[in-house]
């Protein structure tokens, strides 16, 4: 009981730091030392007031304190993800897999918190049931994205006839000219069809060029140009906030900008700017 209740102190802070690390720049040193401090305080308190000798204290004040601080960190996590929740209300079709994952984590932790908070009126096992439910939902999301990647890989194999080298060179030169002169990739509404129309080629041909010849998805292809633009702005423009740099580069959400930047460069926008 003491180990279980002590561990519950960490759920809220871990959720909050996890969400912040994905959505925006996080001071990892602050997060690390905060968690170490919490563990030390819990350990010292557990030695001074063990559960066996003070069950009333742990079931009363400690239990309620855990639930309160846990809930506070859930609220803070929701605040950090407020843009995603706005999308959920206004236009859920714009929510990416990445953002769906964040929502599932927050909602899952909230479900576990709610079940443990109401455990005194229902059953303590409800917490375990809520945890199992959240785990299965997370597993299904992971399976979904894996399956989606496999389908995408299979779709790449549908191209039987390869594009001639001359045509490949022409398409690449057209893209270079268009991107250099108009920076069309900074348009957050850019789609494969729109780009194909600008290049005056068939969408199927452009799709084949990106998939077969560049070995990339359309999103990855465009995001690489957007990240290059973001890197330029981070170096040259000090008047922009980092979130604004993401929007100026063509990303339609802060979370997508941060995750894409870290995936491509291996660091966060803030750390890149500092270095």
From TrEMBL:
Keywords: DNA-binding, Membrane, Transcription, Transcription regulation, Transmembrane, Transmembrane helix. SUPFAM superfamilies: Homeodomain-like (SSF46689). One of its GO terms (molecular function) is sequence-specific DNA binding. The chain crosses the membrane at residues 6-23, 30-49, 61-79, 100-118, 124-145. Pfam families: HTH_18. It comes from Flavobacterium bizetiae. This is HTH araC/xylS-type domain-containing protein. The keyword Cell cycle does not apply. Residues 165-275 form the HTH araC/xylS-type domain.
């Amino acid at each position: 009981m003491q180990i279980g209740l002590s561990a519950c102190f960490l759920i809220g802070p871990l959720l909050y730091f996890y969400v912040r690390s994905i959505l925006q720049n996080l001071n990892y040193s602050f997060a690390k030392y905060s968690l170490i401090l919490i563990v030390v305080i819990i350990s010292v308190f557990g030695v001074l007031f063990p559960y066996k000798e003070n069950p009333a204290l742990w079931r009363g004040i400690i239990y309620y304190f855990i639930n309160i601080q846990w809930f506070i960190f859930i609220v803070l996590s929701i605040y950090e993800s407020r843009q995603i929740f706005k999308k959920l209300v206004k236009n859920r079709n714009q929510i990416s897999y990445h953002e769906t994952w964040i929502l599932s984590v927050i909602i899952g932790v909230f479900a576990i918190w709610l079940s443990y908070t109401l455990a005194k009126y229902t059953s303590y096992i409800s917490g375990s049931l809520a945890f199992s439910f959240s785990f299965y939902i997370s597993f299904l999301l992971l399976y979904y994205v894996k399956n989606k990647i496999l389908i995408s890989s299979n779709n790449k194999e549908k191209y039987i006839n390869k594009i001639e080298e001359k045509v490949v060179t022409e398409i690449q030169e057209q893209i270079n000219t268009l991107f250099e002169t108009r920076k069309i990739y900074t348009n957050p509404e850019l789609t494969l069809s729109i780009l194909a129309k600008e290049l005056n080629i068939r969408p199927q041909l452009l799709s084949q060029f990106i998939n077969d010849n560049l070995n990339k998805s359309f999103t990855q292809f465009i995001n690489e140009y957007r990240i290059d633009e973001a890197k330029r702005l981070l170096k040259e423009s000090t008047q922009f906030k980092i979130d604004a740099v993401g929007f100026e580069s063509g990303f339609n959400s802060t979370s997508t900008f941060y995750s894409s930047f870290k995936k491509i460069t291996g660091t966060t926008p803030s750390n890149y700017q500092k270095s």
